[in-house]
Amino acid sequence: MLYPLKFEPIYKERVWGGTRLREHLGRECPDGCPVGESWELSGLEGDLSVVSNGFLAGNDISELIEVYMGELVGDRIYNRFGTEFPILVKLIDAREVLSIQVHPDDALAARRHNAYGKNEMWYVLDAEKDARLWLGFRKRVSEGEYRTHLEAGTLDELLKVEAPKKGDAYFVPAGTIHSIGKGILLAEIQQTSDITYRVFDWNRKDEAGNARELHTELAVDALDFQGAEGLKITHAGERNRAVELRRCPHFAVDLVEVDGTVEREYVALDSFVVYLCLEGEIVVECEGGAESMVGTETVLLPAEFETARLQGKGKLLEIYMPR
After folding, report:
1. Is 198 a catalytic residue?
2. What ranges do the domains of the chain cover?
3. Which of 95, 198, 246, 323 is catalytic?
4. Which residues contact 293 (CB under 8 A, 6 or more apart)?
5. Higher pLDDT, residue 22 or 182
6. What is the pLDDT of residues 85-110, one digit of tens each?
7. pTM for the predicted model, two decimal places
């Protein structure tokens, strides 16, 4: 029988990354380099998450799906995605501002890269007082207006600015121009894709004095030039209940505030469930065993389990594939 699975984080050095994954979250990140991302659960080829607990330790997520198929991910998901895990869960530490960028949708990504597009959602774990997010155009713009501002280095003037705080959440559909500002620590839930079109990098240079590659022409076909509306997710947590944050064809995310015991039922779901602990300490129990989550640990609950009990005190994101 399967059991609640934990995985080894995959740490990514980024020019804009920092040290808060180690200093703020207590992670054992590599020293001496700016770590911008921790891939908590990944099915992306070349970056497959490896189990860290129980008798399956050392096996990667693709190997597990090959053996356990629908018992692990759900029959409908296995029939659609095969051995590819369809969701990528990250933690992002932005010590410096990220590039202004856009991700293609499924149709464009399939045509250009034989890959999936990238719809994503952010949950802010921490943000400095003056932190900013740029998320979508303030109003509809023409391609010509966009190009004029891009060439002048004033693209940010066209973008909608958000002042994030801890607990805020945002949906970032494919095609939405965006950037994460410095001083932000967040969780990102996305499709299994690593396709990013970088359109402006704030005139940043690397240690050798070189600018990073831009993808100006690739980005034009991917961009949604409409004004951004409704991307900030309004929510209020409820004690010992799951509150839906976002549901789209690519993933569903609920916020669960645990204070004591919460019973969760997944009889009709036919999907794996990923728990990403946001704070506190929570134990997940099911027929296959129990596993604790402390801080920002992640646990994968196999689809074969129809119920689970969450015990302790803290908050978590509950992530799955919606019907």
Report:
1. yes
2. 10-233, 242-320
3. 198
4. 275, 277, 281, 282, 283, 284, 299, 314, 316
5. 182
6. 999 999 999 999 999 999 999 999 99
7. 0.96
